[in-house]
Write a structure and sequence with these properties.
The complex is a heterodimer.
Chain A: E1 12-15, H1 18-28, E2 37-39, H2 43-48, E3 55-62, E4 65-74
Parallel strand pairs in A: 2-4
Antiparallel strand pairs in A: 1-3, 3-4
Chain B: H1 16-22, E1 73-82, H2 87-96, H3 108-122, H4 132-146, E2 162-165, E3 169-172, H5 179-187, H6 191-196, E4 210-216, E5 225-226, E6 232-233, H7 236-256, H8 261-279, H9 300-304, H10 310-315, E7 323-330, E8 338-342, H11 343-346, E9 350-354, H12 360-368, E10 375-379, E11 385-387, H13 393-399, E12 405-409, E13 415-419, E14 429-437, E15 442-444, H14 449-452, E16 460-464, H15 469-478, H16 500-508, E17 514-515, H17 517-526, E18 541-542, H18 543-550, E19 557-560, E20 566-570, E21 573-576, H19 581-584, H20 589-598, H21 600-621, H22 634-659, H23 671-697, H24 703-709, H25 715-722, E22 726-727, E23 761-762, H26 772-807, E24 811-812, E25 818-819, E26 825-827
Parallel strand pairs in B: 7-15, 8-14
Antiparallel strand pairs in B: 1-4, 2-3, 5-6, 7-16, 9-12, 10-11, 10-12, 13-14, 13-16, 17-18, 19-20, 20-21, 22-23, 24-25, 25-26
Classes of the chains: A alpha+beta, B alpha+beta.
């Protein structure tokens, strides 16, 4: 399923680089599999071309308050 | 301790050979003890099955009552019987296999398909068994498909109809095969075919479902009890086993004596009955076996099943020490953070007193005491608990030393956890300070009932005493009532004044109300205030000044109610506005302000103080309602009639407009829907007008009206009592219109009448009484509301339970992230904003 256009309610997703992931895991004291999951078949993952095992950083926005959210890409 | 992860459990069926292997004794004598009171060899309490009487030695393991775990025995049945709990599976097997060649009735193609499907269910070694249940469901679908096949696809023989009659009888065509014949048929099914049917032949050959060797439970499972009279009373299971053995023996004798077949068959069936009820005495289709007294026996299945069974009662059911439960009753003199504990309970419950080198003298003094706050037990350093009696007190006093723990009775100031079920949220369990009181009930300040959702109509509550210093500290600093005032939902106060507590304070703070010196000192004294406010020229005191005395020093607070009234406190003095439900009752912001600015202790003290003053002043003034309050004067009665006439006329006009098509429809609605909406709106206007009529002519001397302002109830209650009941709506579906085809509710109403009274508008009130139609409409509304309430609470209760169970071990870590017990991250920041509502200033800043 391809994402044809952006929707204002879908926050921006991005693939994190390996170094970023390493640093993040260190900071939060977790393993990648401890994070919430996202399917490779998820429209956002498909759009970004994410691979299983990567981490997606999601820029969630609640009013003026912005905060990051992380998801571990898993197989369908 | 060594632990291993349990990967899977597999259940199978014991074969007769396995039973013989497990068994240590073949039992032959259908009796228990001989005349000397010793277990009979080969009897049901044979000493090889283990011993439970002290002094005897087990003949199998040589152990004594404490050490012998017990051993299985067996009974050899003269004739085999069906295992009733498995008759459904036997039925399935008979249906799906050929009566001649005993192969499965699946044809070759079907065999190939199912072969792969069930292989995994059967061979669990190293294979995926997670979908076993789904696959067994597929088997059931397959069984349905092939059970009516008339001709065996393998040998071509005609299949006769098989009937199953609960619990253990089968009919094949006209014949009724005996258990041994069934066994022969089942044993001829090949291993391969069994696998196709989802059965593992290595652990569960179907012929083992026909019992020829009956495993006898160890004596430890069915101990006999010696009564005071010296008489022995046997366990239900033992009784049942005696029955089985008796019939078994008679059957054997009859067969050996060459008795007629009918007699043998009868005994055989009787044996079947006894074995069936041995497993489950609630088997449908047969009468339960009874004790001599007429009580149904509790056999194997009954021990395990249900609420009082082994699982739910003994394994999942936890019981707790250091706890108490009794009825609660109200006590306005008990502090909100305290709980009144009856003396009887306080002298049973204990708190540990750790003996150290600094308090050993105090400990000794405590030990010497022989009246109420005394020591009940001593736990010495080796962990042995000893009861302190008058006979050993002196001795213990000599040996008490540092490191011992004394268990002393509960006294004032001890910390206790107080709980009311259902424990739906965190404030269902709070820490209270103990206050020992006479009587037999727990006392609770009524201000603290809201978080527990408790009332005093017979509610019972539980009390737990934390037993370590850590637990006490944790309870005190995390769970105390004063720290639980603010709701985790929105930060508003859960504990507050309510009902009479608001009414009294409203009366006190009314501009015209003044108190004599006597009244003022009495009231302030109750609150623990021993100063008087400024006296007026006539020697009286303003109620408002007295209220100000109760406020924290220097409080500045201002709020606006929905009705537009300003409530202002300046420098600890009430300067504007009235104390009403909105400013002083549940959810009032005043409490939040005090709590945030002066701390939770001051807040709880404030609520306690004001509740006492309020209550006392309400008592002085007298707040009550009588029938008089609902007997309205002529003016109101006239206005009521006029209002109703006016409303009906307007509605009639609407209907005329509708019929002449002159009605302007509302956007998005048909003409008919618009009419309905407009009628409902018109009736709503009537309700609101009635409200204003009442408040125009009635004053606060009408206490029902007084309470609707400050305390309990609303104008709607007054309206229903002295104006009219108004529209009785069935929830969400609009005005009542069900009953007849034409849409009328009752035969007394003309078809297609849509005027207010025809659709559930009740013009009468509780004081005047209802006419039959009004009563009916009111009953429809009430029933609807009641049913809705029942459905809603059941639904939402279960939904909430699932939610809170799913969330229960999530916690917020130091970095603000939410994680579970396995360090899985749920949120990076709690709630996305790291806001804890408890700590917010609940709507203080608009």
């Amino acid at each position: 399923m391809a994402v044809k256009r952006e929707h204002e309610l879908v926050p921006a997703h991005e693939i994190m680089s390996e170094n970023e992931v390493k640093k993040l895991m260190q900071e939060m004291g977790v393993q990648t599999y401890n994070l919430p999951k996202i399917l490779v078949t998820d429209p956002q993952a498909v759009k970004l071309g994410a691979k299983t095992g990567q981490i997606l950083k999601i820029h969630r926005k609640d009013g003026e308050n912005e905060y990051p959210y992380y998801r571990y890409v898993v197989e369908d | 301790m060594h632990a291993e992860v349990l990967d899977h459990i597999k259940f199978g069926i014991l074969s007769p050979e396995q039973i013989k292997q497990l068994s240590v004794a073949k039992l032959t004598v259908p009796d228990t003890y001989n005349e000397d009171g010793y277990p009979i060899d080969g009897g049901l309490l044979d000493q090889r099955l283990g011993v439970i009487d002290p002094g005897l030695i087990c003949k199998t393991c040589g152990g004594r009552a404490q050490t012998c775990p017990g051993h299985f025995g067996h009974i050899e049945l003269t004739r085999p019987v069906v295992h009733s709990e498995f008759s459904k599976i036997i039925y399935m097997l008979l249906q799906t296999t050929c009566q001649q060649c005993h192969r499965t009735l699946l044809n070759d193609d079907q065999i190939l398909t199912f072969q792969d499907k069930f292989k995994k269910v059967v061979n669990i070694e190293g294979e995926d068994i997670t979908n076993a249940i789904e696959k067994l469901e597929e088997r059931d679908v397959m069984v349905k498909k092939i059970r009516n096949i008339k001709k065996c696809p393998h040998c071509g023989s005609v299949q006769q109809k098989i009937k199953f009659s609960s619990p253990t009888y089968f009919y094949i065509g006209e014949k009724k095969p005996k258990p041994d014949e069934l066994r022969d048929m089942l044993s001829k099914i090949s291993d391969h075919d069994l696998e196709l049917l989802g059965i593992d032949p290595r652990t569960s050959r179907p012929e083992w479902l026909i019992i020829s060797q009956l495993l006898v439970a160890l004596v430890n499972v069915r101990p006999s009890i010696t009564l005071e009279s010296g008489e022995r009373s046997e366990d239900d299971l033992t009784h049942k086993l005696v029955d089985i053995m008796r019939i078994n023996q008679r059957l054997e004798q009859n067969i050996n004596a060459g008795a007629p077949q009918i007699i043998i068959d009868d005994l055989w069936e009787l044996l079947q009955y006894h074995v069936t009820t041995y497993f489950n005495n609630e088997t449908s289709g047969i009468p339960p076996a009874r004790h001599r007294s007429g009580r149904a026996l509790k056999t194997l299945a009954q021990r395990l099943k249900g609420k009082e069974g082994r699982f739910r009662y003994n394994l999942s059911g936890k019981r707790v020490n250091y706890s108490a439960r009794t009825v609660i009753s109200a006590d306005p003199y008990i502090h909100i953070g305290d709980v009144g504990v009856p003396r009887d309970i306080a002298s049973k419950l204990t708190v540990p007193f750790y003996v150290t080198e600094w308090n050993i003298e105090t400990a000794k003094k405590l030990l010497e005491k022989t009246t109420y706050p005394m020591v009940l037990n001593i736990i010495s350093r080796d962990g042995k608990r000893k009861r302190i009696l008058d006979t050993n007190r002196e001795e213990i006093l000599k040996i008490v030393q540092v490191g011992d723990i004394l268990e002393r009775q509960l006294i004032d100031g001890d910390i206790a956890l107080f709980n009311r079920q259902p424990s739906l949220h965190r404030v269902s369990i709070m820490a209270h300070k103990v206050k020992v009181v006479p009587g037999k009930t727990f006392r609770l300040n009524y201000c603290a009932t809201a978080p527990y959702n408790a009332d005093f109509d017979g509610d019972e509550m539980n009390l737990h005493i934390p037993q370590t210093l850590e637990a006490q500290a944790e309870a005190k600093y995390l769970m105390e009532v004063k720290d639980q005032v603010f709701s985790p939902r929105d930060g508003g106060a859960i504990i507050s004044n309510s009902e009479d507590g608001v009414t009294g304070m409203y009366l006190l703070t009314k501009e015209e109300n003044r108190l004599t010196k006597d009244e003022a000192t009495f009231i302030l004294g109750l609150a623990g205030v021993f100063e008087l406010p400024k006296v007026d020229k006539d020697g009286t005191y303003k109620g408002r000044d007295i209220f100000s005395m109760l406020l924290p020093k220097g409080l500045d607070f201002e709020t606006k109610t929905k009705s537009g009234m300003t409530f202002r406190i300046k420098d600890g003095k009430l300067v504007e506005g009235n104390v009403i439900s909105a400013t002083f009752g549940r959810g009032a912001k005043l409490y939040v302000k005090i709590g945030k600015d002066y701390g939770s202790q001051e807040l709880i003290d404030f609520i306690f103080r004001t509740s006492k003053v309020s209550e006392a002043y309400a008592t002085i003034k007298g707040v009550t309602v009588g029938v008089k309050d609902y007997m309205v004067n002529q003016k109101i009665a006239d206005e009521r009639i006029a209002l109703l006439e006016n409303t009906f006329k307007k509605v009639d006009d609407l209907i005329v407009q509708y019929k002449t098509r002159k009605l302007q429809p509302l956007i998005g609605y048909t003409l008919r829907q618009s009419l309905e909406k407009m009628i409902i709106a018109e009736l709503d206007v009537a309700r609101r007008t009635a409200e204003s009529v009442l408040s125009k002519y009635e004053g606060e001397e009408n206490h029902a009206l007084l309470m609707s302002k400050a305390g309990r109830g609303s104008m709607l209650n007054l309206e229903q009592m002295s104006m009219f009941l108004g529209q009785q709506a069935t929830l969400s579906s609009g005005r009542i219109k069900r009953g007849y085809y034409s849409g009328r509710v009752l035969p007394h109403i003309a078809p297609r009448d849509i005027r207010p009274q025809a659709r559930g508008f009740v013009v009468s009130n509780y004081t005047l009484g209802l006419d039959p139609i009004g009563l009916f409409m009111h009953a429809v509304g009430s029933r609807g509301a009641e049913v809705f309430k029942a459905l809603l609470t059941a639904r939402s209760g279960y939904l909430y339970r699932r939610l809170s169970n799913a969330l229960q071990d999530y916690y917020v870590q130091g970095d603000g992230s939410v994680r579970d017990a396995s360090n899985n991250m749920v949120e990076t920041i709690y709630g996305g904003d790291l806001i804890d509502p408890i700590k917010t200033q609940y709507r203080l800043v608009e």
